[in-house]
Each structure stands twice: as C-alpha cells, then as structure tokens.
Amino acid sequence: MKAGLAAPGPAKRMKTYRFRNWGIVFLELAVAAAAFWFAARRGASPVGLIALVVGVYCLWSAFAEFRGVYIGRSGFAWPAKRLRWFPLVLSGRRKLDLEDVSEMTVAPNWAGHHILIVEGGFGTDLLMFSSRESRMKFFEAVKERVPNVKIYRFSW
After folding, report:
1. Between the CA of residue 122 and those of 76, 77, 99, 102, 125, what are the distances in Å?
2. ∠ CA(153), CA(134), CA(13), 5° rounding?
3. Residue 59, domain member (yes or no)
4. What pLDDT is recorded for position 34?
5. DSSP 100
6. Which of 8, 117, 125, 148 has its CA 20 to 30 A from that of 87?
7. ∠71-77-81 over CA atoms, to 5°?
8. How many CB atoms within 10 Å of residue 21?
9. pLDDT of 1-45, one tens digit each?
10. Cβ contacts of 136 within 8 Å, gap of 6 or more
C-alpha cells in the first residue's frame, strides 16, 4: 500500500427511521369502533352499511398510519395522497427512492399536527407528524441521505 492512502473501511450502515403518529392511529381506531358499534345497532339498513364501510376504512387507515413514515435502505414509504383540507383521509401507501424528493415545505399546523408538503418527480404529497421533534428528526434523516434537498417554510 502506498504511503498516505488509507485502507478503505467498512461501508457505513444507513440507519432506518420510522415515524408514527399515535394520536391519529388511536383516533382512527376509536372512530372504527364507534362505526362498527353503530353498524351492529342499525343492522342491514343503508345507514348501517355505510357505518360498516366507514369502520373498515378507518381500520385500514389506522393500519397505514401504524406503519408510519419509513426511511430505510430500500427507500422511503409513507401514508399517501392526503387531502389538503382534511389530511386524515388517505388513499394508500407510497414508496420510492429518497433521491426522487426534490423539496419539502413546512406547512401550517392542522389540529396540532405538523404538516409537511413533499415534492419531487412523483408529484406532491402531505406528511403528518405528531410533534416538531419528529418532523426535525425526519429532516435530519432525509438530509443524511439526500444532502441537496431543499427545505422551505410556508408563509401566508
């Protein structure tokens, strides 16, 4: 080995992160329980069937929220396609490489939850965090993997 050249060390292992919003998970479980109770009381009537559909959706949504925002070696996954005016409603889960994220914008809080708008080649989506600390840890995790991502603060 030549003088002045260091031997390559072991590859740095990337840490994985998961951010869960427990308040939303418990709220959705409570709404699901109330909807199932209401559906059981109403039976097979149209109102009872609508309550049953709401209960199933809330269970599915709670499961998606329980999985949370995940950053790992394989990429980035989160509960996706929230409505801007009512971010509790979601339509699935999205997974992609962090390199696809070009910018993030901190939006005004919604019902005590921290909203983050993520933009990139995939379009735009909203992320919800239960606290400022979890949002800041998310920023650190993204900056660790994608140092040139732009972060903005929304202002009126």
Report:
1. 12, 13, 11, 10, 9
2. 110
3. yes
4. 95
5. G
6. 148
7. 140
8. 21
9. 455 555 554 556 678 888 888 888 999 999 999 999 999 999 889
10. none
* DSSP assignment letter at 3: T
pTM: 0.74
Query: Is the residue at 8 inside a domain?
Result: no
What kind and span of H or E run contains 152? strand 150-153
Rounded distance, CA 33 to CA 123, Å? 34
Q: How far is CA 50 from CA 21, 27, 40, 57, 82, in A?
A: 26, 19, 11, 11, 21
Tell which residue, 90, 74, 78, 65, has the closest CA to residue 138: 78
Number of separate domains in the chain: 1
Q: What CATH number has the domain bearing residue 59?
A: 2.30.29.30
CA distance 52 to 103: 39
Specify whether the CB–CB gap between 114 and 131 falls below 8 A.
yes
Q: Output Rg (C-alpha) for the chain, integer angstroms.
A: 20
Beta strands, E only, 10-141: 17-19, 69-72, 75-80, 92-96, 101-110, 113-120, 123-129
